[in-house]
Write a structure and sequence with these properties.
The complex is a heterodimer of chains A (114) and B (116).
Chain A lengths: L9 E5 L4 E6 L5 E9 L6 E7 L4 E3 L3 E6 L4 E6 L8 E9 L8 E2 L3 E6 L1
Parallel strand pairs in A: 1-10
Antiparallel strand pairs in A: 2-7, 3-4, 3-8, 5-6, 6-7, 8-9, 8-10
Chain B lengths: L4 E3 L2 E4 L5 E6 L6 E8 L3 E9 L2 E4 L8 E7 L2 E6 L8 E8 L10 E2 L3 E5 L1
Parallel strand pairs in B: 2-11
Antiparallel strand pairs in B: 1-3, 3-8, 4-5, 4-9, 5-6, 7-8, 9-10, 9-11
Classes of the chains: A mainly beta (114), B mainly beta (116).
Amino acid sequence: GESVGLHLPTLSVQEGDNSIINCAYSNSASDYFIWYKQESGKGPQFIIDIRSNMDKRQGQRVTVLLNKTVKHLSLQIAATQPGDSAVYFCAEIPRGNQGGKLIFGQGTELSVKP
Amino acid sequence: DAGVIQSPRHEVTEMGQEVTLRCKPISGHDYLFWYRQTMMRGLELLIYFNNNVPIDDSGMPEDRFSAKMPNASFSTLKIQPSEPRDSAVYFCASSPSRGWSNQPQHFGDGTRLSIL
């Protein structure tokens, strides 16, 4: 897919290591957050979500952490695999936002070295 | 579930021509979103619909852009006349609504549009 900026933050990790991708969100009133993965030539793919009444949520090999005090979101990927190479976006929905209008972050490019 | 289906996957056309992008949302989803993705601006929301009704079109760049949703299973985004600066990847996404609870949007694989 398209890169989402001329200067995307990049993260390079060794296969098998854990990855941590960070995101600073903008609106303290946001109450729903989503992580998406976008592979080359494809649309963003939902990975995991978290609501503001939680500070941690786990999925399969992924964990999302939410720190509302500093408006920070992170995505942890355990035992990173080459197939995890992609651009990762965080997205937020401010409270009261009708229809779930998403506000996307810049994106981080994850590169997994075999 | 087939997911969100967009067509065409690629479109190359000359400046001034009309372009129509198509989207079939996931069955049962009552929100539909059109986005544009470019290197410079990232992912931008253009317009979204709820129950086939346009709710927010503030992201539509200008009058050359229009979107319709004649029924729950089909939407179009039209550009007329097209310009080179419209070149981008256009994504359609859909999501269900469940009362107060937000639900994630599910994206199609996009239409890569090149205006020469």
